[in-house]
């Protein structure tokens, strides 16, 4: 279970950061962290991960402060944490030292699945390939909480599909996943719940099954919450 209470994070007077009064994410849920650019998704994931100071509030993971749970969390970001002078194989060996539950066999299987050459230096890889290494490592750490910030960024259509299939096939029921993405239609089929951010607040919290029962589309709900104006371009273009 991930619990946030009265969490406030401010960047400066212009930027709202994050404001969450109460949020509980039960163990085993796959949660989509959604919203327009700048709505607060990364800030939220970083706050759960304990990165950056909160102005007030508390984040608990399985009842403990996040600092006591680092061994149980994998944070997979676009920035990546790999050491680019290493090969994926060496990187796996490096991670085994720090993560006692690191599963080398699973890591190598995942690298193969994504067609990653395990013997070339990571710095010679493309952006998408580097990010795949990060995903393989993140899912092999034996972490119970997996946070993914935009795992689809820079991934081709086939990789995105392969990634989703991989995730569904290897996840156990005791793993909790938070995944931010702009590919709403693609992740809609794998998430249990959608948190929709707008200006640093959760403006929508929906279980996908409930939306389906009500005959609603997640992308439509998001449009309403984000206040998307279909005709905005018309006025903007008049200025040019
Ligand atoms: N280090 C920072 N200093 C000041 N403001 C920041 C900082 N990081 C983020 N912000 C601001 O906080 C708000 C939320 O940013 P955040 O990166 O969480 O959005 P996001 O939903 O992940 O966006 P995107 O989809 O574009 O990646 C934005 O207004 C952004 O400008």
Q: In order across it, which strands form the biggest sheet?
A: 6-7-8-3-9-10
CATH superfamily: P-loop containing nucleotide triphosphate hydrolases
> What is the total domain count?
1
- What fold name stands as the CATH topology? Rossmann fold
Structural class: alpha/beta
Give the N-to-C terminal Cα separation: 51 Å
Provide the list of bound ligands, each named once. Answer: adenosine-5'-triphosphate
Please report the first level of CATH classification, the CATH class. Answer: Alpha Beta
SS strand fraction: 15-25%
Architecture, CATH level 2? 3-Layer(aba) Sandwich
Q: What is the number of helices?
A: 9
**Order of SSEs:** EEEHEEEHHHEHEHEEHHH
Task: Note down, in words, how this protein is organized.
The protein is of the alpha/beta class and 240 residues long. The chain has a single domain, classed as P-loop containing nucleotide triphosphate hydrolases (Rossmann fold). Helices cover 34% and strands 24% of the residues. The chain contains 9 helices and 10 strands. A 6-stranded mixed β-sheet has the order 6-7-8-3-9-10, sandwiched between helices. Strands 2-1-4-5 form a 4-stranded antiparallel β-sheet. Strand 9 and strand 10 form a beta hairpin. Helix 2 packs antiparallel against helix 3 and helix 3 packs antiparallel against helix 4. The mean pLDDT is 89. Adenosine-5'-triphosphate binds next to helix 1. Keywords: ATP-binding, Nucleotide-binding. GO terms for molecular function: ATP binding. This is ABC transporter ATP-binding protein. It comes from Evansella alkalicola.
């Amino acid at each position: 279970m991930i619990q946030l209470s009265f969490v406030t994070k401010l960047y400066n007077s212009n930027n709202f950061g994050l404001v969450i009064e109460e949020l509980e994410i039960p163990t085993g849920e796959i949660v989509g962290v959604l919203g327009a650019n700048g709505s607060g998704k990364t800030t939220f994931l970083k706050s759960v991960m304990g990165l950056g100071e909160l102005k007030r509030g508390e984040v608990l993971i399985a009842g403990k402060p996040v600092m006591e749970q680092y061994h149980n969390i994998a944070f997979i970001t676009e920035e990546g944490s790999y050491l680019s002078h290493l090969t994926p194989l060496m990187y796996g060996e490096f991670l085994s030292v720090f993560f006692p539950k690191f599963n080398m066999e699973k890591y190598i299987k995942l690298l193969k699945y994504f067609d990653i050459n395990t013997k070339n230096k990571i710095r010679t890889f493309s952006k998408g390939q580097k990010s795949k290494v990060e995903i393989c490592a993140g899912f092999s750490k034996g972490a119970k909480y997996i946070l993914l910030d935009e795992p689809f960024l820079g991934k081709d259509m086939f990789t995105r599909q392969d990634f989703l299939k991989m995730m569904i096939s290897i996840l156990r029921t005791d793993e909790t996943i938070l995944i931010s993405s702009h590919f709403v239609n693609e992740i809609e089929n794998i998430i249990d719940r959608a948190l929709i951010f707008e200006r640093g607040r959760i403006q929508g919290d929906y279980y996908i099954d409930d939306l389906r029962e009500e005959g609603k589309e997640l992308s439509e709900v998001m449009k309403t919450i984000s206040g998307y104006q279909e005709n905005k371009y018309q006025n903007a273009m008049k200025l040019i």
